[in-house]
């Protein structure tokens, strides 16, 4: 049973203690998960992602340990990332990781951040590889390796060749392959599209690509996350179809008869890419819509 203090009497001072990580726990000035997540300026989900990254905690731990005092160094590290995010820097670059097709991939400003809509390309590829034993797949413009690694992970019998002209991107992709235990089945080559492939290389069972397809000067290049991503991975510095023309034109000679070419492209480019595929002699040319209803991926089958 509690006893009331006489009116006007002061409360005893809270004892000063230190947490295991050295944080001062006196009074209400202590920084905790709860107090940091209440700060305005970021959407709650983004704040939780950044704080979990700094602490090395799971989302569940953020909930169950939300009143634990945090060390000043931890708070400072979080506030630094928070300021960068408020300035527009992508979450994926701040944490150094991105989830794609169930895989955790390392990313850096040297590579395009994998998008959920690109998972459609992987799904279409896997569906068309059904019934193909030990398929050999070529990924053009691999970036972080997302598409190649997702296919390799889903098809343990597949062998992938992944090309990119950026050595920095290839370093990221190679590290991802190693961390996922896929390095023995994915070969990375520095190449400007087909350039590094030997003339006598055996034809592939499939070619996939998510090339740069944003038109030069498009206003989106100066907005949002795109401001921080490598320009060469976003735009062909031309009409948005330059890379796709090269890919489609060179695909048939590097595919087995009856094999598929699948390419991601911009929201307004499906008609043009279908025309490119048809003009190159591909059969069963189609475009598939993403979850937003946008024709996002186009493909065709070599005669």
TrEMBL record:
Q: Where does S-adenosyl-L-methionine bind?
A: 141-145, 164, 193, 210
Instruction: Give the first-level EC class, as a single word.
Output: transferase
- Which stretches are tagged as biased composition: Low complexity? 9-21
Q: Which domain of life is it from?
A: Bacteria
SUPFAM superfamilies attached here? S-adenosyl-L-methionine-dependent methyltransferases (SSF53335)
User: Where, in this chain's numbering, is substrate bound?
Assistant: 210-213
GO terms in the biological process aspect are: methylation
Family recorded in the similarity comment: Belongs to the protein N5-glutamine methyltransferase family. PrmC subfamily.
Name of the featured protein: Release factor glutamine methyltransferase
Origin organism is Pandoraea pneumonica
Record gene name: prmC_1
